């Protein structure tokens, strides 16, 4: 069998798989195989870039969060328990990533290789989302940009849940858009299930998922919209609720996902904290933290104590809270980050500015231009809004935004295409348009 024949068979299989998955050839384009002919090389480039990068890294974990994820994963594998180093039940970290590591292996290199594959899969799903907004050429351009997107390549090599978050967020968006387009209860339920898994990976996504329930009802003001909303909410509630029940029985309190919410709320609102301070030292903060830890040996009680302490600081100076929240909202979208609390060198900062930094203005232009007339754009806006408001109140680090960068790229391509068309440069317009 020749290479050409193998490649043709691969194209046929991928084209048929896309049609069967999406069930709407009108959106994918009549010539799906021609689209796949370009999409496969883009995905291969994405995969080889990520694999090539992660294989250059030393098999070590150089940040505390990663070490804790690995310890919890080993605890699940060896003892079938989610416990502290002292052997006590815990919910101090969201369970999604440790469970992923427990299933596929807590080894550093194996986790990175899987993350490279998952990062590539997220680009395929992003292409399907792009077809909801754009024609064939713009969607392929979006996939190509995501294939080489520096921050997403970088996080494939970090022992962290960010790549899983990227994949799950774009999967939820794709399933939700397909569900309302097709009236599919199955896809709505799958979206809710995926959202539940995403929430167990990071609770940051939960406000956006709650707004999605309302989006279903508002955008389809019929019984169908209500049905899709219920079918979305049900598996989401079951997945998240199951872990909450576990926390109630193990820790004595119905902790939603993890017991670090109070700590992060306190961390982000302690006097002297600035937008990008995060967990860096602030005068007097360690002393208050030690006092809270000493007075509350129970994990759930500590969580509440941190919430109370943060609330007292906010009440003492509400003006500072409002100004700080606004700064943290802006900080979430800054152009050059330290994605994993690891300082980036000049080259990495520059690559972020020249990718995300250049794309963001086009994203905002297209987003607000289409917000009123496109329900799918409104869903993306709700995700942006929910993440921004959440991290404005808690802590704001750019790594929390990275799951949204896929949507930034998709929106930015629309802006680039619109401006190019106004300049009579129609290279991004499909012939049938």
Word description of this protein:
The protein has 433 residues and is an all-alpha fold. It has one domain (3-422). The protein is 73% helix and 0% strand. The protein contains 19 helices and no strands. It has helices spanning 3-22, 25-28, 32-54, 64-79, 96-104, 108-133, 136-147, 150-155, 162-182, 185-201, 206-219, 223-251, 261-269, 285-295, 299-316, 318-331, 346-370, 375-393, 402-422. Helix 7 crosses helix 19 (402-422) and helix 9 (162-182) packs antiparallel against helix 10 (185-201). The protein is globular and about 70 Å long. The model has no long low-confidence stretch (mean pLDDT 88).
Topology:
Blueprint: H1 3-22, H2 25-28, H3 32-54, H4 64-79, H5 96-104, H6 108-133, H7 136-147, H8 150-155, H9 162-182, H10 185-201, H11 206-219, H12 223-251, H13 261-269, H14 285-295, H15 299-316, H16 318-331, H17 346-370, H18 375-393, H19 402-422
Task: Calculate the mean pLDDT score and round it.
Answer: 88
Distance between the termini: 39 Å
Radius of gyration: 22 Å
Structural class: mainly alpha
Flag low-confidence runs: none
Determine the number of helices (DSSP H or I, runs of at least 4 residues): 19
3D shape: globular
Into which percentage range does the β-strand content fall? Answer: under 5%
Domain count: 1
**Overall number of strands:** 0
Summed up:
The protein has helices spanning about 5-20, 25-30, 30-55, 65-80, 95-105, 110-135, 135-145, 150-155, 160-180, 185-200, 205-220, 225-250, 260-270, 285-295, 300-315, 320-330, 345-370, 375-395, 400-420. It has about 425 residues and is an all-alpha fold.
